[in-house]
Give the backbone structure.
Amino acid sequence: MSEADTRTVEARQWVEEAGKAKGEGYDFFDFLTAVDHLDAADDPGFDVVLHLYDVTPGALREVFLVTRIPDDADLPSLTWIWPGAAWHERETHEMFGIGFSGFTDSSGRGLRPLLLPDGFEGTPLRKSFVLASRASKPWPGAKEPGEGATAHAAKAGRAPRRKLQPPGVPDESWGPR
């Protein structure tokens, strides 16, 4: 298989470029997701990524369409081009908080929860999401990240490293323990 074609498109051209790709033979919808870049110094936001295949026998090709949208911006839905995009748009909405205008899945119920339990608050795939369960429940591994380095550092004649917290774990002042 050849290397994937990656196309960066403007958000206002999202639907047009997706339709153009389908017209070029990329008619197999693989996935749609987002990548959190809200902490970027220049142009913070989300990269919304669409992965498509052309499954013509003997000529398998793939393309990625990528667009950057700011936080709290909606992106036009692709459900009218690929009805299967509904699941992916619902997941992306639930996990990142990205809205998809014109969304339809023929249920008439709109962008509704898909994976998380009823009453869940927050968008867990954003980098800023606090992993509250890590604050109230010990790490299930053999040792916490950063533990075990003290004895090794002492043998090597170095000062021990401070205990590291994995991304998303709040500091000691956060919540009950």
Summary: The beta strands are 5-8, 28-37, 45-54, 61-69, 74-76, 99-101. The helical segments are 14-23, 85-96, 132-136, 149-155.
